[in-house]
């Protein structure tokens, strides 16, 4: 698969749409469906293009959307701090910070549980917004 090159004239949203079209299979459909759920969960989410992948942010990175040969992976930047009562996280479970949801071909994700998890991640990011960063103190 070719990587989408970031062009100054293309917005992150355009690059994400281009990636979905380039995938052209279940991975593009799955990532597109998750993108739709993300936007429903948080209409103020900001789409970014970093590290050659879609990134969704709100007061900081919420998650990345990666596509591999056999899996679509949504990695939550602060997933270890989230309560996942629906047990959506099924990857990167040993880390101290991140958690991921791996979606294989034909698998469905509980939409309401995913949206609740995403909203919880937004709330976590927003709760730390007023804290000064260590770099800000000079």
Question: If you had to describe this structure to a student in words, what would you say it looks like?
Answer:
The chain has 138 residues and is α+β, with helices and mostly antiparallel strands. It is built from three helices and five strands. Helix 1 runs antiparallel to helix 2 and helix 2 crosses helix 3. It is globular and about 35 Å long.
Core attributes:
five-stranded antiparallel beta sheet, 33% helix, globular, disordered C terminus
Q: Approximately how much helix is present in the residues?
A: 25-40%
Overall structural class, as computed from helix and strand content, comes to alpha+beta
Strand order of the largest sheet: 1-2-3-4-5
Tally of alpha and pi helices: 3
Rounded radius of gyration (Å): 15 Å
The total of beta strands comes to 5
How much strand content do the residues show?
Answer: 15-25%
- Main beta sheet strand tally, sense and closure: 5 strands, antiparallel
Q: Give the oligomer, counting copies of the same chain as homo and different chains as hetero.
A: single chain
Rounded average pLDDT: 87
Termini separation = 45 Å
Could you say which overall geometry the principal axes of the C-alpha atoms support? globular
Order of helices and strands: HHEEEEEH
| Poorly predicted parts | 130-138
């Amino acid at each position: 698969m070719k990587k989408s090159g970031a062009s100054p004239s293309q917005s992150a949203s355009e690059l994400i749409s281009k990636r979905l079209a380039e995938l052209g299979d279940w991975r593009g459909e799955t990532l597109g469906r998750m993108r739709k759920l993300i936007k429903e969960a948080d209409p103020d989410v900001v789409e970014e293009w970093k590290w050659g992948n879609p990134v969704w942010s709100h007061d900081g990175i919420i998650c990345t959307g990666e596509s591999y040969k056999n899996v679509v992976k949504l990695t939550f930047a602060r997933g270890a701090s989230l309560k996942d009562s629906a047990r959506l996280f099924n990857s990167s479970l040993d880390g101290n910070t991140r958690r991921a949801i791996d979606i294989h071909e034909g698998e469905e994700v509980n939409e309401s549980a995913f949206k609740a998890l995403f909203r919880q991640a937004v709330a976590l990011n927003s709760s730390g917004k007023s804290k000064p960063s260590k770099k800000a103190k000079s």
